[in-house]
Amino acid sequence: MLMLATCSASSSSLISKPFFSSSSKLPLSFSPLSHPFPQTKRPISLRRPPMNILKNLGFGANNKPTPSMENSAIAQSPDDDVPAPGQQFAQFGAGCFWGVELVFQRVPGVTKTEVGYTQGFMHNPSYEDVCSGTTNHSEVVRVQYDPKEGSYDTLLDAFWARHDPTTLNRQGNDVGTQYRSGIYFYTPEQEKAALESLEKQQKLLNRKIVTEILPAKKFYRAEEYHQQYLAKGGRFGFKQSAEKGCNDPIRCYG
Q: Is residue 103 a contact partner of residue 156, using CB atoms and an 8 Å limit?
């Protein structure tokens, strides 16, 4: 039986603790430095193309544009969307974007989140295109935040706490280049903060961090059913709180 935790006003942490579950038993708190990664499997479309695991791990993959990938120049252009007045954008890739989005929804100062695809060669890709392992897109969360209410450094802290940045092209059982770890910056200030935070984080780990830090490229909003997936109920229909400051464990797939 699934048990739902409720947010407490006495929560001491402003950022949700990472959480994964490999069975239907009660959830356990998760730390990326002391526990294994999830053994759950993400539901996929029946129309999802077959995948070559070596290609998805980045070995022998053809990650360059092909004649069938039209308008790759558009896909590789900067993200030219404009945030709301007084707001700023940030982009993060840390595995399956469902759980990552909920983490950022809970961060004070964040005013909007969207999940989508970026860094690839195909213009306007679908979920099935991205899952094929041939477009080089990453699943990301684009965060809009008010710098007067929450800092970019706080977003970076949430990013590092959410995932294992030392596993190449995978998080747990989610394998593929779309699950790679990445920070995609919009300004020189964000780039500097990201590089400094990576250096700081590396000192805490005994394995090399493989997180890529690159300029933010065109953001393709994912299909509507992916948006705020866990807050809306996820796979099983049990809504998970997106309340600011909530530190309930996150059930990755609902």
A: no
Taking the C-alpha atoms of residue 57 and residue 175, their distance in angstroms, rounded to an integer, is: 7
pLDDT one-digit tens code per residue, 65-87: 453 445 789 999 999 999 999 99
The tokens for 19 are 């959480």
The amino acid present at 201, given as its one-letter code, is Q
Burial readout 32-52 (b: 16 or more C-beta within 10 A, e: otherwise): beeeebbebebeeeeeeeeee
Continuous segment of H or E residues that includes residue 189: helix 188-202
- As a dihedral over the C-alpha atoms of residue 92, residue 54, residue 51, residue 77, rounded to 10 degrees, the angle is 40
Please state, in angstroms and rounded to a whole number, the distance separating the CA atoms of residues 121 and 143: 22
CA distance 245 to 109: 10
Most confident option among 34-48, 57-71, 182-196: 182-196
Label residue 228 left, alpha or beta by phi (over 0 means left) and psi (-120 to 50 means alpha).
left
Active site residues: 96
User: Rounded to two decimals, what is the model's pTM?
Assistant: 0.75
Contact (CB, 8 A) for 166 and 196: no
